[in-house]
Design goal:
Layout: E1 3-6, H1 11-16, H2 30-36, E2 40-45, H3 48-56, H4 60-70, E3 76-80, H5 93-106, E4 108-113, H6 124-132, E5 136-142, H7 151-163, E6 168-172, H8 180-193, E7 198-201, H9 209-219, E8 223-226, H10 240-247, H11 258-274, H12 289-292, H13 296-308, H14 315-328, H15 338-352, H16 361-368, H17 380-387, H18 405-411, H19 419-427, H20 429-443, H21 448-469, H22 473-476, H23 479-484
Parallel strand pairs: 1-2, 1-8, 2-3, 3-4, 4-5, 5-6, 6-7, 7-8
Helix pairs in contact: 5-6, 5-19, 7-8, 8-9, 13-15, 14-15, 19-20
């Protein structure tokens, strides 16, 4: 029997709807999802934490608690970016440990831990913390293609992750690059060299994922990731129902009920319409990913950056620059946060016309070793261009970080009501602070009609600006952020 993890509550809408699905749209269907018998449901981590605070004005911790009440029988899974947790830099060990403790206490059962560079040192604390609280530790291999990556190297990494205490191993193919043959060979190698269940995660971006799943299953894969059909395909996962039907009546039969799955799919088909303004432009198979290895989510970022610089015509130049930058920065896998680092640097190189004349702090920190060890060494020539004569670090980056929790708790004591609030502040200081202030404002009885009127005003203004600048309304205004910000935060009346 093959087990299924469904991404409908996290990666699916992160890939297709800019992570904008609200908890209120998950709760009505949650009891039926709880009946299905999934190995787990991914419903937290990744970009959901940031989006909840920044755009939805929801407490991300409350999402776990609310869903747990109506889904008592299903394992909840989250994506943990190793020492980055759910943020974009490395955090101190005490923050990682406290975060895992609180997430597990709220209801997270499975922690999928990965590192963007496949530097296992950056996964160690997250894995150890999850093990300590009794959760399932799913250690992940960030799958990518390059001259320095191979199935043999990935199998070696899998053996190391088993030694570090992993309960399962995930092949995390974030760009949909894994071919059927490669999937078969990698799963076979991991099954021969480790004693752990193997879990394959992929995206439909290149069109190969469902076939690759089948070959992986034939090689012994125990678990695969899918998304309910109405939230599947394109840059999301393969459809759950299709996989269930493919395996029905075979030795791999999932045992899942297609009738119940159809009801869930119908529900999310209706919900998806509410978020049409956030629909990804990449809703079809994009085989360019096989050339440039660029996940679909990066494409919209490129378009926005070039539009702001009035150089939209240089998109293809940027796409060709990405593999060059990636190679020069040590063939890093393109996954958060390295995908953003490489993508932004490639865009700057093209816009300025002089490669590495302008570098982001993130690019500099990557070269300094502040994100860990890159898969391949960075040449002395490129390093000098980016950080001059600075000497990169070679230790685990978090070894240089003193404990942060107590200091941050003191900083935010005026607004924090719980240790979870302190952790939110640790991860996204300004965003969390804005959220706390707005939470207080709303609890004091902000006038709902006034808020609605101001929201309508912002929409109207955004429409005018979007027509004048030929951009989308979505780019012109973050409705939730602007409408919720009252000048009570800074002094009386509404901020316009």
């Amino acid at each position: 029997m093959v087990k299924v993890m469904d991404t409908m509550m996290r990666d699916a809408h992160q890939s297709l709807l800019a992570t904008r699905m609200r908890t209120e749209d998950m709760l009505p269907i949650a009891p039926l999802i709880d009946e299905i018998g999934y190995w787990s449901v991914e419903m937290w981590g990744g970009a959901t934490f940031d989006t909840c605070l920044r755009f939805l004005k929801e407490d991300p911790w409350e999402r776990i608690s609310k869903l747990r009440k109506v889904m008592p029988n299903t394992h909840f899974q989250m994506l943990l970016r190793g020492q980055n947790i759910v943020g974009y830099r490395h955090y101190s060990d005490d923050i990682v440990e406290k975060f895992v403790q609180k997430a597990h206490a709220r209801g997270i059962d499975v922690f999928r831990v990965f590192d963007a560079l496949n530097d296992v040192r950056n996964m160690e604390m997250g894995m150890r913390s999850a093990k300590k609280v009794g959760a399932v530790v799913e250690a992940s291999i960030s799958y990518t293609l390059s001259p320095v990556h191979s199935n043999e190297a990935f199998v070696k990494m899998g053996k190391k992750l088993e030694e570090m205490g992993a309960d399962t191993i995930c092949i995390k193919d974030m760009a949909g690059l894994i071919s059927p043959h490669a999937a078969y060979e990698l799963v076979k190698g991991l099954k021969e060299e480790t004693s752990l269940p193997i879990h394959l995660h992929s995206h439909m971006t290149s069109g190969m994922a469902l076939t690759s799943y089948m070959k992986a299953i034939e090689a012994g894969a125990d678990i695969v990731d899918t998304a309910i059909s109405s939230l599947s395909g394109a840059t999301s996962q393969p459809p759950t129902e299709s996989l269930v039907a493919m395996l029905k009546g075979t030795e791999y039969d999932t045992g899942l009920d297609l009738i119940k799955l159809a009801e869930i799919a119908d529900y999310f088909n209706k919900v998806r319409r509410k978020y049409k303004d956030f629909e990804s432009e990449h809703i079809a198979i994009d085989t360019d990913v096989l050339i440039f290895q660029i996940p679909g989510g990066m494409m919209s970022n490129f378009a926005n950056q070039l539009r702001e610089a009035k150089q939209e015509h240089k998109l293809h130049d940027v796409l060709e620059e990405v593999p060059r930058v990636r190679a020069e920065l040590g063939y890093v896998p393109l996954v958060t946060p390295t995908s953003q680092i490489v993508g932004t640097q490639a865009t700057l190189n093209i816009i300025t016309g002089q490669r590495y004349k302008t570098c982001t702090n993130e690019t500099k920190n990557l070269v300094r070793g502040m994100y860990g060890k890159t898969p391949a060494p960075i040449s002395a020539e490129i390093r000098k261009k980016i950080i001059g004569d600075e000497k990169p670090i070679t230790v685990r980056p978090a070894d240089l970080l003193p404990p942060e929790f107590d200091r941050l708790a003191a900083e935010v004591k005026q607004y924090a009501r719980s240790e979870e609030d302190v952790l939110s502040y640790a991860l996204f200081p300004q965003v969390a602070l804005d959220f706390f202030k707005e939470r207080e404002m709303m609890e004091k009885g902000a006038n709902v009609r006034e808020l609605a009127a101001i929201a309508a005003l912002f929409v109207a203004q955004a429409e005018k600006r979007s027509k004048a600048k030929k951009t989308s309304v979505k780019e012109e205004v973050d409705l939730w952020r602007l409408a919720a910000r009252r000048e009570a935060v800074t002094g009386g009346g509404w901020i316009l």
